C-alpha cells in the first residue's frame, strides 16, 4: 500500500481548466486522476500477462479438458460461499443469502464437495457472486479514483479494501498453520488466478486486438460492469468469481442465464 | 361529460394517426416511441438472419463474412452510433474529417463485428426478456449458445430510427459497446493533443490489420 500511494502521488493527470467545461466534465466522468501512473502500471501488467499469466492460462486450457475445468471452477465458487453469504446478508438480501446457503449445502454434499453444480442443474438455483466492495458501495461508499494494479487488474480504493476484507474475513484463512495449510491456501490462490485468466482469454485477446487504446477500454468496461454488479440487475454475477479485479469484473464467457 | 368525450375522441384520433404512421412506415416524429414487441420481433428476425449467415456451410468463410456484414449494415444504426461514439470531438473535426471518420467507423464496426460473429460457428440464440429502457429505446435480451462453451447473455438496445427499428448498442455483462468505444476514441484523441486526425490514422491502421487477418485465414 505505501508503495502504491507513493506511485499515485508521482504521476497525476492535469485537470482541465474550468474554461473548458466539456473536457472538465469528461475528466470527472473518467475518474482517473492518476492516469499517467496507472498507465505505467498497466504496461507492467501487460508484460507480466504476456510472458506469464496468459501462457499459463492457455496451457491450462489446452491441458485440462473442459468438464474438469468446469469442476474446478465450481469448487472454487463453492469455497467462496462464506464471503458471498456474508455479503448477501450485509446487503440485506435474505433471498439471495438463502440461495447461497442452499447451494452450498447441496453442492458440498450431492455435488461431491462442490465439483458438480447440482443446485443449478437439478434445482435451478443459480449461483451469484458478491464481495465486500459491492457491499461498501451499497452502503454508500464511493468508489474513489480508478486504480490499475498489476496482476489484480482494474480497481479502485473501495474495491481494494473490499478485496482485503474478503481475504481476512474468509474462514478458510483462519484455521491452522504449517506447510500443508499454507500449501492449500497458496494452491487455491494460484488456481483461482489461472482459472480467472483462462475465462478471460478470448475477451482480453479481443480487447488487445480491436481496441485502439486497451487501457481506456478496460477502464470503461470495468467501471460499467461494477456498476451493474452492484445494482444486482440483469444476470451479471459469475458463480465462481475469482479474487482478482478481472475475476470480480469480467468473466464474459461464463455461464449466465 | 362533454370534456370526457372530447378527450376520448382526441385520444382515438392520436392513436389512429400513430398507427397510420407505424403501418405505412412514414418517418414518425423525431423521437418516435419505441415499441417492445416490434423491437423484439426485429431482434428475432435479425438474429435468425445472422445465425443463418454464420452457419451457412455452403459458402466459404469470406462469403459468409460478407453475408454477415450485409445483415449488420441493415440492422445497425451505423451513423447514429458513430456520432455517439465520437461525441464532443465531432465539432472539432473539419467537414472532411467528419466524412472520413464516418467511412472508417462503418468499416471498423462492420469488420470487427463480422470477424467476431464469424467465429461463432454452430451458434444458436434464443430471445429473453425485453424491457422498455427509456421513452425511445427498448432493451432486448438474447441468450447466445455455442458448442463447447457456456451460454452467455447479450442485450441489444433498439431504437426507432426514421421509422425503422435499428440496433443502437450492444450490452454484454453490463458493459455497453458504444460507451466503452466512446471512451477509447476520446482517449486516443486526447493523448494526441486533441487531434481528430490522429484517431483517423489509428483507425486506418486498424482496418489494415483487420484486412490482413482476414486474408490470413
From TrEMBL, chain A:
Keywords: Lipoprotein, Signal. GO terms for cellular component: membrane. The keyword Lipoprotein applies. Residues 14-36 are annotated as: Disordered. GO terms for biological process: intermembrane phospholipid transfer. Belongs to the MlaA family. This is Phospholipid-binding lipoprotein MlaA. It comes from Belnapia rosea. The lineage of its organism: Bacteria, Pseudomonadati, Pseudomonadota, Alphaproteobacteria, Acetobacterales.
TrEMBL record, chain B:
Pfam families: MlaC. InterPro entries: MlaC/ttg2D, TAT_signal, Tgt2/MlaC_sf. This is Phospholipid transport system substrate-binding protein. The lineage of its organism: Bacteria, Pseudomonadati, Pseudomonadota, Alphaproteobacteria, Acetobacterales.
Amino acid at each position: 500500500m505505501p508503495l502504491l500511494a507513493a506511485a499515485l502521488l508521482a504521476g497525476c493527470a492535469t485537470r482541465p481548466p474550468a474554461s473548458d467545461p466539456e473536457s472538465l466534465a469528461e475528466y470527472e466522468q473518467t475518474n482517473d486522476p492518476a492516469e499517467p501512473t496507472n498507465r505505467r502500471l498497466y504496461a507492467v501488467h501487460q508484460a507480466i500477462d504476456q510472458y506469464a499469466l496468459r501462457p499459463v492460462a492457455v496451457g491450462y486450457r489446452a491441458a485440462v479438458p473442459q468438464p474438469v475445468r468446469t469442476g474446478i471452477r465450481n469448487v472454487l465458487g463453492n469455497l467462496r460461499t462464506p464471503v458471498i453469504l456474508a455479503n448477501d446478508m450485509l446487503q440485506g438480501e435474505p433471498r439471495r443469502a438463502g440461495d447461497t446457503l442452499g447451494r452450498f449445502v447441496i453442492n458440498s454434499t450431492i455435488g461431491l464437495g462442490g465439483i458438480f453444480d447440482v443446485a443449478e442443474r437439478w434445482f435451478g438455483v443459480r449461483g451469484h457472486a458478491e464481495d465486500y466492495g459491492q457491499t461498501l458501495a451499497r452502503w454508500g461508499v464511493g468508489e474513489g479514483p480508478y486504480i490499475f494494479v498489476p496482476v489484480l487488474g482494474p480497481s479502485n480504493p473501495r474495491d481494494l479494501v473490499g478485496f482485503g476484507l474478503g481475504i481476512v474475513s474468509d474462514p478458510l484463512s483462519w484455521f491452522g498453520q504449517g506447510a500443508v495449510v499454507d500449501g492449500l491456501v497458496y494452491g487455491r490462490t494460484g488456481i483461482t488466478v489461472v482459472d480467472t485468466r483462462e475465462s478471460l482469454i478470448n475477451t482480453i485477446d479481443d480487447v488487445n486486438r480491436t481496441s485502439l487504446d486497451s487501457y481506456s477500454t478496460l477502464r470503461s468496461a470495468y467501471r460499467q460492469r461494477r456498476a451493474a454488479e452492484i445494482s444486482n440487475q440483469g444476470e451479471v454475477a459469475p458463480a465462481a468469481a475469482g479474487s482478482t479485479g478481472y475475476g470480480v469484473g469480467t468473466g464474459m464467457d461464463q455461464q449466465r442465464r | 361529460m362533454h370534456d370526457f368525450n372530447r378527450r376520448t375522441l382526441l385520444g382515438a384520433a392520436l392513436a389512429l394517426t400513430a398507427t397510420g404512421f407505424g403501418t405505412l412506415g412514414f418517418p414518425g416524429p423525431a423521437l418516435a416511441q419505441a415499441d417492445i414487441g416490434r423491437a423484439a420481433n426485429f431482434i428475432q428476425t435479425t438474429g435468425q438472419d445472422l445465425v443463418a449467415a454464420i452457419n451457412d456451410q455452403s459458402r466459404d468463410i469470406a462469403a459468409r463474412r460478407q453475408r454477415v456484414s450485409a445483415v449488420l449494415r441493415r440492422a445497425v444504426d451505423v451513423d447514429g452510433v458513430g456520432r455517439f461514439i465520437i461525441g464532443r470531438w465531432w465539432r472539432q473535426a473539419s467537414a472532411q474529417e467528419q466524412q472520413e471518420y464516418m467511412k472508417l467507423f462503418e468499416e471498423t464496426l462492420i469488420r470487427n463485428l463480422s470477424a467476431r460473429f464469424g467465429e461463432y460457428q454452430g451458434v444458436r440464440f434464443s430471445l429473453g426478456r425485453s424491457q422498455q429502457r427509456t421513452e425511445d429505446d427498448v432493451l432486448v435480451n438474447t441468450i447466445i449458445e455455442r458448442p463447447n462453451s457456456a451460454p452467455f447473455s447479450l442485450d441489444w438496445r433498439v431504437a426507432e430510427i426514421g421509422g425503422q427499428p435499428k440496433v443502437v448498442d450492444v450490452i454484454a455483462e453490463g458493459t455497453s459497446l458504444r460507451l466503452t468505444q466512446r471512451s477509447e476514441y476520446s482517449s486516443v484523441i486526447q493523448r494526441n493533443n486533441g487531434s481528430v486526425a490522429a484517431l483517423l490514422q489509428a483507425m486506418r491502421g486498424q482496418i489494415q490489420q483487420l484486412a490482413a487477418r482476414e486474408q490470413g485465414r
